[in-house]
Backbone:
């Protein structure tokens, strides 16, 4: 049987087993939320304090706090999920919100996410989404993670924790990718160098040097001191500029890693409990509802109208693409309007090129 550590007090810990029983055991360096295996035989492992009621009296507050949902986290790509989280940032439940989410959950051990810290649970889901092809490296798209809690401070802390975890994960992946690329680049040039080595057997020609003793009479060699021109080579300190190239390479690597992040961005937003309730009524996540709202705003600015219901089943990638489309169109219109307003400034010509185009 499995049990969860719900509270720790000194040398003792409170656990809740699969059957819902709260009991007291010895603390063996446990941590809250840790899952342990227990034996059904109470004499061997666990001692119930007189009764479940006695255990509840000792640990009723911590047990209630552990089992009560305190925060909410949703994740959208197109499979959409929501996590119910307690005040210790441990996952209580994981639920799929749409059909794609239901399909995804079939291939994932959802129970294995329960009682994990929310940042680790989200990281595991993102990795699994990538493994199943929902996230493709180098393909433009996006993921939205929305957080909400009982207080604004807790909401902000939870969002920041998830941002840091996701950023660390992406940085590690970028480092691994760059290391693999450098190893491949280093291995390739080594092979051609080996082909040049067979030229060395030509060195036996140096045996002709014994003829040179007759040439020792040549005083021309002292003329070689005239070659102090070579000290001009100290001008080669220009070579230290090469490290700058290395720095430039590092900069380009950083820029590339930033571009990679932009190609598949994970956005973490903060929402209120009211927004969570509104999204639940519409059977979507607050993250998706927030994004569709941005789409409607972009469409309105460009002179169009979009219905929210038409986009609730769409992927984050498709919604973001449509938002960009409207924004590009709006910028293009603004440029054209500026050109039209600047055209009349040419007074005296009487041609009115800009106005004539409008009249046409």
Residues:
């Amino acid at each position: 049987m499995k049990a969860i550590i719900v509270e720790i007090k000194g040398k003792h810990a409170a656990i809740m087993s699969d059957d819902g029983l709260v009991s007291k055991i010895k603390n063996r360096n446990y941590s809250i939320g840790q899952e342990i295996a227990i034996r059904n035989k109470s004499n061997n492992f666990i001692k119930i304090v007189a009764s479940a009621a006695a255990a509840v009296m000792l640990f009723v507050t911590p047990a209630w706090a552990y089992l009560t949902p305190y925060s909410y986290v949703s994740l959208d790509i197109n499979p959409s999920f929501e996590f119910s989280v307690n005040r210790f940032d441990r996952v209580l439940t994981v639920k799929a919100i749409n059909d794609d989410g239901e399909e995804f959950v079939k291939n994932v051990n959802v129970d294995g996410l329960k009682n994990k810290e929310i940042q680790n649970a989200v990281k595991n889901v993102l990795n699994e989404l990538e493994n199943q092809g929902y996230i493709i490296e180098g393909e433009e798209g996006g993921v939205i993670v929305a957080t909400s809690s009982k207080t604004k401070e807790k909401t902000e802390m939870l969002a920041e924790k998830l941002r840091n975890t996701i950023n660390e994960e992406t940085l590690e992946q970028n480092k691994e990718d760059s290391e693999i690329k450098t190893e491949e680049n280093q291995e390739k040039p080594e092979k051609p160098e080996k082909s040049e080595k067979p030229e060395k057997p030509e060195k036996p020609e140096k045996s002709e040097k014994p003829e040179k003793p007759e040439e020792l009479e040549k005083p021309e060699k002292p003329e070689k001191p005239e070659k102090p021109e070579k000290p001009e080579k100290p001008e080669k300190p220009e070579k230290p500029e090469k490290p700058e190239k290395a720095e430039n390479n590092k900069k380009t690597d950083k820029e590339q890693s930033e571009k990679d992040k932009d190609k598949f961005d994970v956005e973490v937003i903060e929402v209120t409990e009211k927004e969570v309730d509104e999204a639940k009524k519409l059977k979507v996540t607050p993250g998706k509802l927030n994004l569709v709202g941005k789409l409607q705003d972009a469409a309105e600015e460009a002179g169009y109208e979009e219905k929210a219901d038409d986009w609730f089943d769409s992927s984050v990638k498709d919604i973001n693409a449509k938002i960009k489309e409207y924004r590009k169109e709006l910028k293009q219109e603004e440029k054209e309007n500026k050109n039209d307003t600047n055209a009349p400034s040419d007074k005296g010509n009487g041609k009115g090129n800009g106005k004539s185009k409008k009249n046409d």
